[in-house]
Amino acid sequence: MKICFLIPSAYGMRGDTRAVLNLATELASRHEVEIVSVRRVRETPFFPVDPRISLRWLIDARPGVRHLLPRGQMRTEVALWRTLRGLRCDVLVTTRPGLSVQAARHVPRETVRVAREWSRPAVPGPVRRFYPKLDAVVTSTETAKEEFARILEGTDGPPLHVIPDALPLGPWPRSRMDNRVVSAGGRWLPGKAFDRLIEAFAIVTDKRPDWRLRLYGGGPEEKRLRALVGRLDLHNNVYFMGTTPDLQGEFAKASIVAVTSHAETPGMTVIEALGCGVPVVGFEGARGPGEFVTPGRDSVLVPQGEGEIEAYASALLALIDDERRRMVLAAGALESAARHAAPAVATRWEALVASLRP
Questions:
Q1: Does residue 173 fall inside a structural domain?
Q2: Which of 104, 149, 195, 348 has the most CB atoms less than 10 A away?
Q3: pLDDT digit string (tens) for 207-225?
């Protein structure tokens, strides 16, 4: 069976890209797998791509590359239309509402078309119009499934399924839980709220100055975050570690993984922490890390709202001061990660596809 994944870019540092590559790698052991990247933004992909996977791109967006058509949406739509009309595969998995709409319009009907969704679409109109032509919609959480159910209510929409994202094929690196390190990772964007984490860690270091915070990633917030570290005089406690394709390996060096965003989509940071056996501290709320963890078993969740930074710092300090509790949560994290193992996730995808094919 040939399975094709259509993604915005296989070359960037995104959690959804990582999730697709993990799943594609496992499926490639039994099927012919191709990844079609709409855009190529750098020379090589940020995350390693298994050699068994065929990778191609439609638009070369690297700096300095010239094109016949002008830059912008028109060039992308022409390339995408040509590719989808001529696509030859048994299953197509699209990973953004915009791509899924185009697949519903242009991909031959004999191809099983599945929309893989992580978040609510910004413009629901085209989804209501074209998603009924798809064979299925798969979300990673129950909350996302409910959102799409509301959007498609009243239409002859496709069946909705929940399948979690996959971790890389094991064995996973495991934390020894003996380093006085809190780690956090992801793109440095306003929504990720790394500033909240830094402010909370300032309270932590006032009481436990021997603990360190390591921040992995990069993005437009870096300058502001570095300035905040300077204002709070945290140069000896907060470290900017840069980007890494092996965030799981870095998390294995920590004893706590901190997540301070109120919405965590697709949640690969949380899942990778669980895979390393590291407890997660995050905020409560829909679409937050609570979608992927069980508080008291593998994590600690803090209420949002007034005084949340102080409450978050208190949660970190409580876990720092209770080694036994950290170890119990670490064991629970490994158990929770089992449902994200690549073979288990791929098997669920294969069962879904088998039910959809004629």
A1: no
A2: 104
A3: 999 999 999 999 999 999 9
Residue 174 lies in a domain: no
Specify the number of domains making up the chain: 2
Q: Are residues 216 and 147 in the same domain?
A: no
pLDDT at 136 over 70: yes
156 within 8 A of 232, measured Cβ to Cβ: no
**With 0-12 CB in 10 A as exposed, 13-18 as middle and 19+ as buried, what is 194?**
buried
Residue 103 placed within a domain = yes
Q: Is the peptide bond before 266 cis (omega within 30 degrees of 0)?
A: yes
Same domain, 202 and 253: yes
CA 56/CA 266 separation, integer angstroms: 24
Q: Where are the alpha helices (DSSP H) in the chain?
A: 15-27, 73-85, 97-106, 124-130, 142-152, 194-207, 222-231, 247-251, 268-275, 308-320, 323-337, 342-356
Whole-prediction pTM value? 0.90
Residues 235 and 299 in one domain: yes
Point out the least confidently predicted range of 54-68, 198-212, 276-290. 54-68
The domain spanning residue 212 has which CATH number?
Answer: 3.40.50.2000
pLDDT for 59 equals 87
Residue 152 CA: distances (Å) to CA of 34, 95, 131, 145: 29, 18, 8, 11
Query: Residue 97 belongs to what domain range?
Result: 2-166+341-356
Angle at 195 between CA 19 and CA 271, to 5 degrees: 25
Q: Quick one: how many helices (H) and strands (E) in the chain?
A: 12, 13
